[in-house]
Amino acid sequence: MLGKLLGAITGDAGQVRPEELGPRFQEALLPGEAVLAAFRTVRDGFALTDWRLLVTNRQGITGSKTEILSIPYRSIRRFAVEVGGTAELEEELKVWDHGGEPVTLGFRRGGGAAMAAQAVLAQRLRGA
């Protein structure tokens, strides 16, 4: 319970149903594109589909302006998962594409979401 509360405050992601990412995310999906796993923080979210990583970033005070970052799997060069230790409250998945700087996705520690996300990512990059 404390972990979920801290995650809500700090913005760490937990796994959710794709519908919970909101209408802007749904609009970004192509016809027939399947969401394999979805994760959400208080304001933002991301999903792994059958051919890309989609990251939603709500901006501004009201969150009405939304950036949607799309990274096709063919553009991903490497990724790393950092799982929490004893004192850490979060886990991270870092994804590098051609740009050089990683996209960092934060997770609540202990929920298994970071490892679930990296497993889907690894399977997609492997071509499964």
TrEMBL record:
CDD domains registered for this protein in UniProt: PH-like_bacteria (cd13225)
Native source species: Teichococcus rhizosphaerae
This protein's name: Bacterial Pleckstrin homology domain-containing protein
Ranges where the Bacterial Pleckstrin homology domain occurs: 7-109
InterPro entries: PHb, PHb_sf
Matching Pfam families: bPH_1 (PF08000)
